[in-house]
Amino acid sequence: MILPIEAYGTPVLKKEGKNITQDYPELDQFIANMWETMYEANGVGLAAPQVGVGIRLFVVDASPFAEGEELRDEEREQLIEFKKVFINPKLEESGEEWAFNEGCLSIPEVREDIYRQEEIHITYFDENFKEHKEFFTGLPARVIQHEYDHIEGILFTDKLSPLKKKLIKGKLNNIAKGNIQVDYKMRFPLASKKR
């Protein structure tokens, strides 16, 4: 089932998610719905708060990035097979920061260069509640950091300079009000009831 994606301004997007246990109600169905929702919106990652659920869970499929011409063969191979569910993750970042133009399904039509660290160590549970400890670099690390921020109540726009935030304030207000055109299902916190 395709779920509506919460737009910028929805309170759940600014709250830290809660850890869940293996007996979380209908977890398999919820994860299946998240995959379906993410693919319908042409995303590479989706966090539970983005569909209105304040838990520490996100899904990532970075395979669309494998199309990049500037990639080395080992990077391309890693991206092609990079499809994972992350539950109750704990993240440590390291390495140099590098900029990449990011967007977000909850903030359509806004893209900005965001600096993130190039390496991460992450401990998490998969959909079967098997624990993993892994190391990622490059684009997989970046996608994970973006989604991890969501379960921490952080949006990529929070990482912008005060001047950049001021410049996009009008766009963000229009998103919250639903004054944009998107080709996927969304819920807007400030949309007029007449729509």
Secondary structure layout:
Elements: E1 5-6, H1 27-40, E2 45-47, E3 57-61, H2 73-80, E4 83-104, E5 107-125, E6 131-137, H3 138-151, H4 162-177, E7 186-187
Parallel strand pairs: 1-7
Antiparallel strand pairs: 2-3, 3-4, 4-5, 5-6
Salient structural properties:
195 residues; alpha+beta; Peptide Deformylase; five-stranded antiparallel beta sheet; two-stranded parallel sheet; 7 strands; globular
Walk me through what this model shows.
This protein is α+β, with helices and mostly antiparallel strands and 195 residues long. The chain has a single domain (5-179), classed as Peptide deformylase (Peptide Deformylase). 27% of the residues lie in helices and 31% in strands. It has 4 helices and 7 strands, in the order βαββαβββααβ. It has helices at residues 27-40, 73-80, 138-151, 162-177, and strands at 5-6, 45-47, 57-61, 83-104, 107-125, 131-137, 186-187. The strands form 2 sheets. It has a 5-stranded antiparallel sheet with strand order 2-3-4-5-6, with helices on both faces. β4 and β5 (107-125) form a beta hairpin. The longest helix is centred in the last third of the chain and has 16 residues, at 162-177. It starts with a strand and ends in an 8-residue tail after the last strand.
How many distinct domains? Answer: 1
What name is given to the CATH topology?
Peptide Deformylase
* Most strands sheet: 5 strands, antiparallel
Termini gap: 23 Å
Counting DSSP E segments of at least 2 residues, the number of strands comes to 7
Shape, please? globular
Would you state the CATH class? Alpha Beta
What is the spatial order of strands in the main beta sheet?
2-3-4-5-6
Rg over CA atoms: 16 Å
Approximate helicity band = 25-40%
Given helix and strand content, the structural type is alpha+beta
Mean of the pLDDT scores? 92
What is the string of helix and strand elements? EHEEHEEEHHE
Give the uncertain stretches in residue-range form. Answer: none
Helical region count?
A: 4
Q: What amount of the residues lies in strands?
A: 25-35%
Secondary-structure arrangement, i.e. CATH architecture: Alpha-Beta Complex
Instruction: Give me the CATH superfamily.
Output: Peptide deformylase
